[in-house]
Amino acid sequence: MARPREFDEERVLDAVMETFWRNGYEGTSAQDLVDATGLGRGSLYAAYANKDGLFEQALLRYHKRAQAHVDKLRQEGLPIERLRELMTDIVEADLTAPQKRGCLATNSAVEMAGRDPHVADLVRQNFDILVRGIEQTIRRGQAANEIRPEADAAVLALFLFNAVQGLRVLAKTLQPKDRPKLAAVIDQTLASLT
Fold first, then answer.
1. How many CB atoms within 10 Å of residue 59?
2. Own/partner pairs for 62-69, CB < 8 Å, 24+ apart?
């Protein structure tokens, strides 16, 4: 029978995710993970096998952030306004973050997905959560004639998701004073849906 874990797994996984998010996979050492979690190397690796196992857990944990965005998209209100809120909230969070981390999934795609099919799959899973949520919101907008009903909702969702990810990359390099530029991109992106 497996021994129960003697640590707060939620807290540990949050610390692991934050460490990889801040430093990337290559930039995170075993000691960084030990320092972030307060656990010994043996305890960490007994629970999660190795650095790859910890990175996998970080990416799985990040799925909750994508799902939180989808949950907000499902709230009451006009679909276009829900989409605007999604894009604005993401840009605002990235612009005002003390560290310009961007998106853990996007960062991981750039750093690792080209050489690690498992990481590519985990990133794709994360992206799919948000793309599906955007597509559902677009379909609601089409049903209300707020978004072009003849357009392919799946294609529009991927287009919008691509814009969101591009905005996240831009926000890593821009300053809060550049907010109007990013707002203009959001306006133009959403105008293309109607």
1. 23
2. 62/17, 62/21, 62/104, 62/105, 62/126, 63/125, 63/126, 63/129, 65/104, 66/105, 66/126, 66/127, 66/129, 66/130, 66/133, 67/129, 69/130, 69/133
Contact between residue 86 and residue 69 where contact means Cβ atoms under 8 Å apart: yes
The first and second tokens of residue 154, run together, are 């799946």
**CA dist 14 → 1, 57, 61, 117, 138 (Å):** 27, 9, 7, 24, 32
Dist CA 119 CA 28 (whole Å): 16
- ∠ CA 192-148-85, nearest 5°, is 55
Give pLDDT tens digits for 29-69: 999 999 999 988 888 888 888 899 999 999 999 999 999 99
**Three-class DSSP category at 104:** helix
pLDDT 10s digits, 68-119: 999 999 999 999 999 999 999 999 998 888 888 889 999 999 999 899 999 9
